[in-house]
TrEMBL record:
Signal peptide: none annotated. Pathway: Porphyrin-containing compound metabolism; protoheme biosynthesis. Keywords: Cytoplasm, Heme biosynthesis, Iron, Lyase, Metal-binding, Porphyrin biosynthesis. Fe(2+) binds at H176, E264. Its EC number is 4.99.1.9. It is found in: Cytoplasm. It catalyses: Fe-coproporphyrin III + 2 H(+) = coproporphyrin III + Fe(2+). Coiled coil: none annotated. Involved in coproporphyrin-dependent heme b biosynthesis. Catalyzes the insertion of ferrous iron into coproporphyrin III to form Fe-coproporphyrin III. The gene is cpfC. This is Coproporphyrin III ferrochelatase. Fe-coproporphyrin III binds at S51, Y120. The keyword Manganese does not apply. Transmembrane segments: none annotated.
Length: 344
């Protein structure tokens, strides 16, 4: 029986002085060129050096705590991040001090793949190693991109955004691009890879089906890394050009690859993509990510209860349940192996 829930997220800066050290934590050893870092630093500084992500996580945690309390489930929720304070190493140390011996982990990413899933296992491994003897058992909850509450929250968010558009529009889903090599390595090796992009396509299909939308696109955003390394394409900005050339009058963007309206969403979509649409004379609206929707707290609690009662997973796709890992071990041998790092 677990005695706590660890909310494990990406982390983000909360003041200007945090920005550079945060970015250095994110990109350590990943071959991201310094020019890209300078550019991204400016995005954060343009928002006063504060990413919305930590506040969004804290608000979502409060909603989950209320939901757990209402159901009489006694499970204190702890918050730890990969890249910024509260750092997961410190949180897991605090859990051990509080006498937690076994906890469930909710990762704030719905998908498989190295960046979206396996890297959270590495965080768990690192945090437990930092605590050493007496570190709690940490069991990660499954991937939830195909959970009915995730899908319906996005569908309703698209409906709300579409109300801002007069007339016709194209529905466009976005997710964080990753190197093609990372997507190839996503999933268990015998599955043929591409688990991340296939799941993104599946989630987009499920949301579009809920909406009854026959036509839509799936594109990528927030590309990083050196230009010579191929990443998933097309990029949302190029895609807006292509849609404009076809005479599409307006777009509704749905950031299906994310759970919250953090800086990658508000910068890359609400700033860059909206500006681009305006330049092209296209209508533009963006659907909210689900973390502030009451369904999100219910989803997290359902995942917890699924685990406690061993109930079957409520899911809308045929992808196997994945991401349930123990103490940072991968889902399967060779699953979502870290990409080869560029040599120095
Ligand atoms: C798949 C994926 C998700 C979704 C899954 C999940 O949510 O976990 C995600 C989320 C996020 N990515 C975020 C921020 C950043 N990602 C970067 C860089 C990278 N992301 C990658 C992938 C992903 N990233 C990759 C392959 C890189 C290249 C370097 C590397 O191999 O790691 C960089 C470095 C600078 C740059 O080059 O952009 C930053 C600042 C934030 C926080 C936003 C905020 O502060 O509000 C969030 C939630
Ligand atoms: Fe990222």
């Amino acid at each position: 029986m677990p005695d706590a829930l660890l909310w494990l997220s990406f982390g983000g800066p909360e003041k200007p002085a945090d920005v550079r050290p945060f970015l250095e934590n994110v990109t350590r050893g990943r071959g991201v060129p310094p020019e890209r870092l300078d550019e991204v630093e400016q995005h954060y500084l343009g928002f006063g050096g504060v990413s919305p992500i930590n506040a969004l996580n804290r608000a979502a945690i409060e909603a989950v705590e209320a939901e757990l309390a209402a159901l009489g489930i006694d499970l204190p929720v702890y918050f730890g991040n990969r890249n910024w304070h509260p750092m997961v190493e410190d949180t897991v140390a605090a859990m051990a001090r509080d006498g937690v011996t076994s906890a469930l982990v909710f990762p704030t990413s719905a998908y498989g793949g190295y960046s979206a899933c396996r890297q959270y296992d590495e965080d768990i491994l690192r945090a437990r190693a930092a605590v050493g003897e007496g570190a709690p058992e940490l069991t990660k909850l499954r991937q939830f991109f195909d959970h009915p509450l995730f899908v319906s929250a996005f569908a309703d968010a698209v409906r709300a955004a579409a109300e801002q558009i007069d007339g016709e529009y194209r529905l466009v889903f976005t997710a964080h691009s990753v190197p093609i090599s990372a997507d190839q390595a996503a999933g268990p090796p015998e599955s043929g890879g591409h688990r991340y992009s296939k799941q993104v396509a599946e989630a987009a299909w499920l949301v579009a089906a809920d909406l009854g939308a026959g036509e839509y696109d799936v594109v990528w955003q927030s590309r990083s890394g050196p230009p010579r390394v191929p990443w998933l394409e097309p990029d949302i900005l190029d895609h807006l050009d292509a849609l404009h050339a076809k005479g599409v009058p307006a777009v509704v963007l749905c950031p299906v690859g994310f759970v919250s309206d953090h800086l990658e969403v508000v910068w890359d979509l609400d700033r860059e993509a909206r500006d681009k649409a305006r330049e092209l004379g296209m209508g533009f609206a963006r659907a909210a990510a689900p973390s502030s929707d009451p369904r999100f707290a219910r989803l997290v609690v359902e995942l917890v209860r699924e685990h406690l009662s061993d109930a079957p997973a409520r899911k809308l796709s045929d992808f196997p349940v994945a991401g349930r890992t123990v103490n940072g071990a991968p889902c399967a041998v060779g699953c979502c192996e870290p990409p080869q790092r560029s040599r120095r």
